[in-house]
Specification:
alpha+beta; about 475 residues; elongated; 3 domains; 15 strands; Arc Repressor Mutant, subunit A
């Protein structure tokens, strides 16, 4: 039997400052080693000052994952030497004196399966190592401390996963949940990272680190399961160790023996007192939490009759669900949801495209209204949407400038229909015996009008002219 547990590290990217100093939490906009101060650079005599908002955001994550939230939390020093850790210790949390991490045990559902959360802890991110050189012989290691001290939430799960696919599904659900809470943007480079602990047939667990993406984590878990199964088959013991994922060779490589908690010589951080989280604060945070993804999906389906699959996609993405909430009315909700999920998501599939887009909620509302009132066909609305994204012009202006308005004049349509009936006599005969094939003729009319014919009027006129 395969058991997989996860340790997920998620930066609280929506905060203004680091966990223990006033340096910017968004270190990505700086040149190397520009976003540092004596505190995050680990200078002797510097003192940490806890970011209160980081505690609140981490508590919200714990609540969203159905975790217990203690009245008091404590911070510890985790001692180890590594070049990207300037103090030679990391300020983190540990449940030595009962549940003193920001979140205790909880659960999250992946399909029909409940995944248990062991704990959620708040800690500082270390710096970043950058390797340069064309080969291992002349490679040098550079250290950028801009990231050091960034607020980080570590989410530790029980080994409840049995397949790499379950791991990938869980991480996607967790990523959507964090975005929906408004505490983090997991799509940013390095903002959400995960290590996996894998064991097979009751053997020792092996930790896999240095994994760059959810896709790579799935592949790394697959490889490690296969490697361990092969060792079991040959009666070779599984060594408890830490292995790194070699992205170039697509294999796991032995790194070091696995440390135990004792190796880190944990002790209480004397420069940060115990933090009391009053019940009033927890109540306030709970009241401020946004509607959950599952609740949104249920509302979209029950209130607006949006198809379940569309509602699932829409509710899972905070950017698009926020856009939907601003743009829709009770009468156009299905149309707005359709435009977002079938067209817009494909056109704005990267952060850069979203930032460059000129689209507003008003554009979406006006475009859906134009479709519903027959001013523009769904086919022509795609062209209008492309133009809106580029220019930001109003829907009415774009319809006029690009001549996208529906052809709804009966006499004009009849002229086109009569010609198509004459040219497609065989299809006309088929339609008389099998009315469903009339869609071929509708398509021909759409082609002749460049997609601008009113589809309902076209179908009715075709039936009338053919006599079915």
């Amino acid at each position: 039997m395969t058991k997989i547990g996860l340790e997920i590290h998620c930066q609280l990217t929506n905060l203004e400052s680091k966990l223990f100093c006033s340096c910017k939490a968004n270190y990505r906009e700086f040149e190397p080693n520009e976003n540092i101060c004596p505190v995050c650079a680990g200078m002797p005599g510097s003192l940490p000052r806890l970011n209160q908002e980081a505690v609140k955001k981490a508590t919200m994550i714990a609540m969203a994952l159905n975790c217990s939230t203690p009245e008091k939390i404590a911070f510890f020093r985790k001692n180890y030497f590594y070049p990207d850790l300037p103090k030679n210790f990391q300020i983190t949390q540990l449940n030595i004196y009962g549940d003193t991490s920001v979140g205790g045990s909880g659960t999250i559902s992946v399909g029909d399966k409940k995944i248990r959360i062991t704990r959620i802890q708040l800690e500082e991110d270390p710096g970043r190592l950058i390797y340069e050189g064309s080969s291992s012989k002349n490679q040098i290691t550079l250290v950028d401390y801009n990231r050091a001290g960034t607020p980080l939430v570590e989410i530790v799960t029980e080994p409840d996963f049995e397949t790499p696919k379950e791991v990938r599904d869980f991480l996607n659900i967790l990523s959507d949940l964090l975005k929906n809470l408004g505490v983090a943007d997991p799509s940013l480079e390095g903002a959400m990272r995960a290590d996996a602990n894998v064991s097979t047939r009751g053997g020792n667990k092996v930790e896999i680190k240095n994994i760059g993406s959810f896709h790579d984590l799935e592949k790394a878990a697959h490889f490690e399961i296969t490697r361990q199964e092969s060792l079991h088959d040959r009666d070779i013991p599984i060594v408890q160790e830490t292995r790194h994922w070699d992205d170039r060779r697509k294999i796991t490589v032995s790194s070091r023996s696995k440390e135990e908690d004792l190796d880190y010589r944990y002790f209480l951080e004397g420069d940060i007192p115990w933090v009391k989280i009053n019940p009033e604060i927890r109540t306030e945070l709970k009241s401020k939490m946004p509607e959950s993804i599952s609740s949104k999906k249920e509302r979209y389906v029950s209130k607006y009759q949006i198809p379940e699959q569309v509602a699932d996609v829409l509710s899972s993405d905070k950017f698009y669900s926020d856009l939907f909430e601003e743009a829709h009315t009770e009468s156009n909700a299905k149309e707005v949801a359709n435009i977002i999920t079938t067209e817009l998501m494909g056109l704005e599939d990267t952060r850069e495209k979203r930032e460059a887009s000129k689209l507003s909620a008003t554009h979406l509302k006006d475009l859906s209204d134009a479709i519903q009132t027959g001013k523009v066909s769904r086919n022509s609305s795609k062209n209008a949407l492309h133009e809106i994204l580029k220019t930001g012009k109003s829907v009415s202006q774009i319809i006029s400038e690009l001549d996208l308005g529906n052809v709804s004049d009966e006499s004009e349509l009849l002229t086109i229909i009569d010609k198509i009936i004459s040219d497609e006599s065989q299809a006309v005969e088929q339609a008389k015996s099998n009315p469903q094939t009339i869609n071929f003729l509708v398509g021909k009319v759409m082609q002749a009008t460049k997609g601008k014919a009113d589809p309902t009027l076209t179908l009715n006129l075709l039936k009338k002219q053919i006599g079915i």
